[in-house]
Write a structure and sequence with these properties.
Blueprint: E1 3-8, H1 19-28, E2 31-36, H2 43-51, E3 58-62, H3 74-83, E4 89-98, H4 106-122, E5 132-137, H5 140-148, E6 157-159, H6 166-174, E7 178-181, H7 192-197, E8 206-208, H8 234-245, H9 249-263
Parallel strand pairs: 1-2, 2-3, 3-4, 4-5, 5-6, 6-7, 7-8
Helix pairs in contact: 8-9
Bound molecules: zinc ion.
Amino acid sequence: MQLIDIGLNLTHDSFDRDRDAVWQRARDAGVRQAILTGASREHSPKALELARTRPGEWFATAGVHPHHATEYTAECDAELRALHTHPEVVAVGECGLDYFRDFSPRPAQRSAFEKQLQIALDLAVDGVGKPLFLHQRDAHADFMAMMKNFEGRIGPAVVHCFTGTREELFDYLDQDWHIGITGWLCDERRGAHLRELVKSIPGNRLMVETDAPYLLPRTLKPMPKDRRNEPAFLPHIVEELARDRGEDFATAAADSTATAAAFFRLTG
Ligand SMILES: [Zn+2]
């Protein structure tokens, strides 16, 4: 088994003391590659810096999460564009809209999102934009409207950590976007609806992610004492996902890996 964790916040300071051991455990569990999420002006360069230490295993995204939208200045835009000249940076994002927490004012969120969509568009090769790593929470209508402005011009897109409704899911699939599934699936309080919805996602549109250190799967046994999620727990998410989809583990693993490798154009 060879899994790819498409959403790993490995720059998080909870990994500072044992980052190499965390990755060794992930490898021992069958995780061969990871996309390190860059979600702020501070952490996007750190994700690239880390990715460069394990060529072919770690890749990075570079972007500014809607929570950090107020830091999206002209200098920040220039910094992101510079990060995107490095081959290890394989997607624009994490970017999008989050009206659930509203940590940044909504107009600032929309502005930062639009500027990052423009980056993905400007980096198009042969007319195909750079892959987008997207976040949407409680902002579906505005999110769809903004994406529509770029319709036909942007490249492949993944709505990461999908937690939404059936209507939202089908809106995304209708646009031919990809879906990222996390351990949210394993949350009997908030994620039960996903158990049914994941059956509707075609294998070549479905990718898996831990979003570690966040979103520790609630079905994991035993639970780590510190409640920190790790990429080594990705196979557990795939097991749960495969069961819900009525597939065997090997099929779900192989499909999500092939989908992620093609989506992010991975080498190594
Ligand atoms: Zn997110």
